[in-house]
Specification:
Number of domains: 1
Order of helices and strands: HHEEEEE
Helix content: 10-25%
CATH architecture: Beta Barrel
CATH class: Mainly Beta
Number of strands: 5
Shape: globular
CATH topology: OB fold (Dihydrolipoamide Acetyltransferase, E2P)
Structural class: alpha+beta
Length: about 130
């Protein structure tokens, strides 16, 4: 019986992902190619699975701290990402990306897609604040 419980606990822990330490998120933010302040104009979501949504944000740039893609204040951009909205009790893992709210302003740490004309989060669950 003890061997079975030990085996079950080992299998269960293989799928756990620990939260990243704060300095890792800060490093991601500091190294993000795009550090912007955005105003969310429109939010569209669609269900991907029982616990995940696809999120598309239309945003206007309010302030540019740095921009590798050379966006300017007043430009409009599209941000695409997935958001996990439900986790089982006791779940351990990295921060989820929030679904941003329309007419709200956020600091955004982003990266531009090489293939498409949209942006995606560069600092994992701490890409927006």
């Amino acid at each position: 019986m003890k061997k079975i419980l030990l085996l079950i606990s080992i299998v269960l822990t293989l799928n756990l992902h620990a939260e990243l330490p704060p300095y890792i998120y800060k490093n991601y933010q500091e190294n993000a190619p795009e550090a912007l302040t955005i105003e969310v104009k429109k939010v569209e979501t669609s269900l991907i699975s029982m616990n995940e949504k696809s999120v598309t944000i239309a945003a206007k740039i309010i302030r540019v701290k740095r921009s590798k893609s050379k966006v300017k204040r007043g430009d409009s951009i599209i941000i695409v990402y997935n958001s996990t909205f439900w986790k089982p009790s006791g779940w351990v893992g990295p921060s989820s990306l929030p679904v941003l709210e329309e007419k709200q302003t956020y600091k955004a740490f982003l990266r531009k897609s090489k293939k498409n004309n949209y942006y995606f989060p560069a600092a994992k669950g701490k890409s927006f604040k």
